[in-house]
Amino acid sequence: QVQLVESGGGLVQAGGSLTLSCAASGRIxxxxxxxxxxxxxxxxxELVAGITSGGRTNYADSVTGRFTISRDNAKNTVYLQMNxxxxxxxxxxxxxxxxxxxxxxxxxxxxxxxxxVTVSS
Length: 121
Description:
It is built from no helices and eleven strands. By secondary structure, the chain is an all-beta fold. It is elongated and about 50 Å long. The N and C termini lie far apart (41 Å).
């Protein structure tokens, strides 16, 4: 099976920076899109940034210009560089990847366990 493991969350002051990492492992045949979502208490989970297998990116309006998503296909890893952090960025951040498992015909969504990002003011 496939596992996504996130790291890099923590506490940071407003205006600071933080980098999240998510590594996929297991019986992976291929990985299509990867992305980061976040969920704050009492709010729905929202897409923060996504990246295709070819490197095309998209961002939520609220993070455009501050966050950068990237991936290392050789390491099956996606990153989220977060700069100029604001208290509004405080949330649990979840890694997502569309993965085809060895021995299966179609790709499906996999999720990480989530990592807490807290931005203090």
